[in-house]
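User: Good morning. I'm curious how flavin-adenine dinucleotide would be positioned relative to this chain. Could you predict the structure with it bound?
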Amino acid sequence: MSERIVILGGGTGGTLMANRLRKHHGGAVEVTVVDRDDRHVYQPGLLFVPFGMADPDDIVRPRRRQLKDGVAFRQNEVDHVDIEAEEVHLDDGTVLPYDVLVVATGARLMPEETEGLTGPGWNEKVFTFYDLDGAVALHRALESFDGGRLVLNVVDLPIKCPVAPLEFAFLADWYFQERGIRDRVEITYATPLDGAFTKPTASRALAGMLEEKGVELVTEFNTGEVDGEGGMLVGYDGREVPFDLAVVIPLHGGAEYVDRSPGLGDELGFVPTDQHTLQSKVRPNIFAIGDATNVPASKAGSVTHFEGEVLLDNVNRFLEGRELDASYDGHANCFIETGFHKAMLIDFNYETEPTSGHFPAAVGAPLLKDSRLNHLGKLMFQWVYWHALLPGRDIPGIGPDMPTRGKALADH
Ligand SMILES: Cc1cc2nc3c(=O)[nH]c(=O)nc-3n(C[C@H](O)[C@H](O)[C@H](O)COP(=O)(O)OP(=O)(O)OC[C@H]3O[C@@H](n4cnc5c(N)ncnc54)[C@H](O)[C@@H]3O)c2cc1C
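Assistant: Good morning! Here's the predicted structure, ligand included:
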């Protein structure tokens, strides 16, 4: 009997793993992907929807069609996993036994966890662009916004793509300039961090850019309550940040079923995972990829992609009874849109902070500086996502390990 590999989640990580496994093994293993719906959203595109720079229909494709022939797809909600019996239970009562389980159910938005956030004013004066409905609603609100205080607020970390809220602030500055009303809009960025970003060098560069663009930075702000009607964010320390329009990045946690699966997750619903092998710490035959893990890498599609290469190798090693390869180094690579057809690029891993220089070698896209080339890279990435990353192709010159050639490592 061939081995049964069940993959929970048919987003970035689940899809690329299923396709890589199918490509490697052909029909020699059974690969089943479970996802609750058939709409695969290209999430980096959500940033552009509020500004009318992306059409919602252009960033959504059917999930099934992204999976290679021979990969089974089940459209179901996962109810729970029984890690003792090695079974996945679906919402219609189906039980899927597995030899290897790959958890790829991403991160969940939990706006209801912040007092007042989903109360009066939600989707009228208070929005998030982290899901498609929110991004579309925010587009309408921005179109009719004629001036006042726009506040960006990250409630707490970890969040998906931690640079996306900064990108939103930069694009908002550009958008209001284009509309000729920038002088009537105050933009504020309120974050729980002590700077614009987590990594000190990038944080300095990004804080400088916020200042250049006239965006006020409020640090160490821990949102306790959102008063949508009164237009006020209230911090746990009593500080208040008034707004006319708030764009909030809610708390994130793992998928709900993780809480219903004894032993599978931590208190936030993420799966305890070895940061170098991507094997879970829960059971040797359970692996995890992407936003669903608790590894200290960014929750980003680029991370998920780099993890995929190491994970394929390790699932194969596990099936063959060989020692796993502890080679994932936390490599992350993010384009940061800065407006005016420009973007910055940062590239880093567990050990090395974002540095200046070039990517992926001495000649290449400039790091930690905005440029038109990086913006083109960000736009082109959508094509790469559907046509190379999801089908499980290797991207020439860009591997899972962070490149050091081209980086000014000594400067930092
Ligand atoms: C606004 C925004 C901008 C971003 N920009 C970038 C960027 O520029 N660059 C970058 O690298 N990354 C970016 N990201 C992050 C990137 O999209 C994610 O990190 C990536 O998609 C993670 O892949 P994943 O497979 O872990 O999760 P996902 O792709 O989110 O997939 C998880 C899947 O699990 C399914 N699922 C969850 N629970 C269940 C259940 N109980 N039953 C069945 N199915 C379930 C979901 O339906 C979903 O399809 C951005 C994210 C957002 C929100």
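Residues 3-106+255-320 form a domain with the FAD/NAD(P)-binding domain fold (CATH 3.50.50.60). The mean pLDDT is 95.
Let me know if you'd like a different ligand tried.
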